[in-house]
Amino acid sequence: MRKGIKGQAGATRQHLITRHLITRHLTRQHLATMALLLGTAALPAAAAAREAVDLILHDGQVLTVDAAFSTRSAVAVRAGRIVATGGEDLLEKYSAAQVIDLKGRTLMPGFIDTHVHPIPIGPSDVNPLVAHSIVEIQDMVRKKAAELGPGKWITGYGWQEAALAEKRNLTRADLDAAAPDNPVLLVRAGAHSATANSLALKIAGVTRDTPDPKGGLIEHDAMGEPGGVIRERQDIVARFIPPPTWAEMKAPMIRTLKGFLALGITSFHDASGRIDDEPAGAGGIAPATPGAEVASGDMTFARARALYAEMGADLPRVTMYISYPGAERLKAFPHHTGYGDDRVRLGAIGENLVDGGFTGPTAWLLVDYKGQPGFRGKGRYTDAELQDMVDNANRLGWQLGLHCIGDAAIVQTINAYARSLETIPDPAHPGDANGPGDRRWFTDHFTIMPPDATMATMAKDHIWIAQQPNFLYNLENRYVALLDDWRLAHNNPVGTPVHKFGLFMAFGSDNLPVGPLVGLYAAITRKGPSGIVHGPEEAVTRPEAIRAYTANGAFLSREEHDKGTIEAGKLADMIVLPFDPLTAAPETFLNSHVDMTFVGGRLVYSNS
Ligand SMILES: [Zn+2]
Q: At 448, which CATH number?
């Protein structure tokens, strides 16, 4: 039996009587005496007076994150939903099969990460995410080469130079030394660049003379040879990797999703979502022959539906962003945003890249990068292309959540959104006059604060933000190197857009890393690993930060009536923290963990 959890079924009669009486302000001595004196006749009446529930958590600090951010000490749960919140008197009102004494710990709504890519570790993958040095990555690659044999692709995700002892990018030569006879492609954390070895570049036909692909950049070494790093367009190499099948990737995907539960994430927005895995007319939009499946191991929407039908109760709930598949194919798809249920549902047309990111850097700025006169990055779409995509999705009833990182990309995106919102009626409310309505479109990222006029347009047209406050922490070195003082101080802003412009903001991680506690730390302190405070005016209070990582994520997927707070009637998606997030030293967020995670009232993760 887990610590802090006890079944009530085995409780003695005396315990039941004692619990029943405890709220009548009797002393423990009185209770002990009275319990002994009370006859059996008193018991059925006492038990019958209490309403049966499945679970009671009590003796805690319950942050409800309701409108008033009120605190309680106990919660009762039945059939996956919260029945009541209150004080210790809930133990008298309800009788539960399971009672958990929180012993003063914090119970709060589960985190909702509004931007995460579930990245499974597949059979050809190494895991450079956990490496502390290039030497360690080389060791992983060497072992994988021995395991797979020569010629087989070796892949992996998540290296970042700041975490490596050598403090530099991984190069072609590093990988050649480890696996000269295997093609290798290792994607950097954030997925905006990757390093290939010589064999991989050879297979992809990348030579010293290969021009940069549209929207991307092939880095070269001092001799003019490709150095291995390809920014933004690593697909020019990745497309030669034989894709794993879903049969191979399903178990690793389940492991990855369960890993989110250990981080306290009870719902997430999957920024890798796709719908093109079944033929048009059969619930999908694949142009392939009937019955043909997409040849990849991706968790597409249909696969997620099947997986969650099988074992959704053990997994975090998911809202899937859908990558824009083109006007005709989107039209052939019979559903739009909101389709699904409380386990798996369709989210926005999202994560299509209006620009790149700072790990390249390929973010599109309104001014030159620091120390790089003339270089501002560039956008991926012409204004007309972007407008076309936005308008097509809008007419079909989709929410929009496009990826825009740099201020130039944000301005372009907001202009396209505003034009579309102001001219095309909301298909969900066709009777309404043209106008923004309540379509909850958002920018997926908001790294460089755009001009005030753009934020004023966002307020006017109700365009919101899916922000990643942890970027400030984990990309601090990149920002310090690449941004002028003002943009550095306002990187990934929260305070100004929320307080000054009244913009609605929900938090997420975008895998840098996935853990919400780092994001909360950065949002309340504005500190990176250096300890330097960047733009204190962009910080928010702890309750604001907690709300942005819980309730606000539910709002973004139109599920605010169902989850995001601990209130009667809502899904019992909750976590237990061993510290008080309202008063603990900020560093606690970096060093602590989640004790328990509940989805729909089920304990799906326990740290003990
Ligand atoms: Zn993105």
A: 3.20.20.140
Please tell me whether the peptide bond between 497 and the residue prior to it is cis, using omega within 30 degrees of 0. no
Length of the chain: 608
Q: What is the pLDDT of residue 595?
A: 98
* Residues in CB range of 604: below 8 A, 6 or more apart: 258, 261, 313, 314, 315, 597, 598
Same domain, 400 and 535: yes
pLDDT of residue 436 exceeding 90, the answer is no
Q: Are 63 and 582 in contact (CB under 8 A)?
A: yes
Angle (CA) 509 354 493, round 5°: 45
pTM above 0.85, yes or no: no
| 34 domain-assigned | no
Per-residue pLDDT at 289 exceeds 90: no
| Model confidence at 27: pLDDT above 50 | no
Q: Which of helix, strand or coil describes residue 136? A: helix
Q: How far is the CA of 113 from the centre of ligand 1 (A)?
A: 13
Asked if the structure places residue 515 within a domain, the reply is yes
Distance 116 CA to ligand 1 centre (A): 9
Is there a contact between 21 and 34 (Cβ–Cβ < 8 Å)? Answer: yes
Report residues near ion ligand 1: CB below 5 Å.
Answer: 403
| Whether 228 and 362 share a structural domain | no
Residues 222 and 369 in one domain: no
Residue 430 is encoded by which pair of tokens?
Answer: 């066709």
Count other C-beta atoms under 10 Å from residue 147's C-beta. 12
**Is a pLDDT exceeding 90 seen at residue 41?**
no
pLDDT average, residue stretch 325-336: 88
**Contact between 364 and 378 (Cβ < 8 Å):** yes
Give the end of a domain, one of 498, 518, 540. 540
434 has a pLDDT exceeding 70: no
- 36 CB burial (10 A radius; 0-12, 13-18, 19+): exposed
Q: How far is the CA of 362 from the centre of ligand 1 (A)?
A: 12
Can you give the residue range of the structural domain that contains 226? 124-238
Q: For position 4, what pLDDT does the model report? A: 35
What separation in Å is there between the alpha carbon of 400 and the centre of ligand 1?
A: 13
How far does the centroid of ligand 1 lie from the alpha carbon of residue 129, in Å? 18
Domain boundary among 221, 238, 255: 238
Q: What is the CATH number of the domain that holds 203?
A: 3.10.310.70
* Residue 32 in domain: no
- What does the block give as tokens for 558? 């139109």
Q: Give the pair of three-digit tokens for residue 306.
A: 């099947």
Q: Please give the tally of structural domains in the chain.
A: 2
Q: What is the pLDDT of residue 366?
A: 97
Nearest to 142 by CA among 131, 133, 151, 154: 154
Those residues whose C-beta lies under 8 Å from the C-beta of residue 230, and which sit 6 or more positions away, are 193, 194, 195, 196, 206, 216, 217, 218, 219, 236, 237
Distance CA 76, CA 160 (A): 44
pLDDT digits (tens, 9 = 90+) for 54-109: 999 999 999 999 999 999 999 999 999 999 999 999 999 999 999 999 999 999 99
Is 286 within the bounds of a domain? no
Q: What is the pLDDT of residues 199-215, one digit of tens each?
A: 999 999 999 999 999 88
Q: How far is the CA of 567 from the centre of ligand 1 (A)?
A: 32
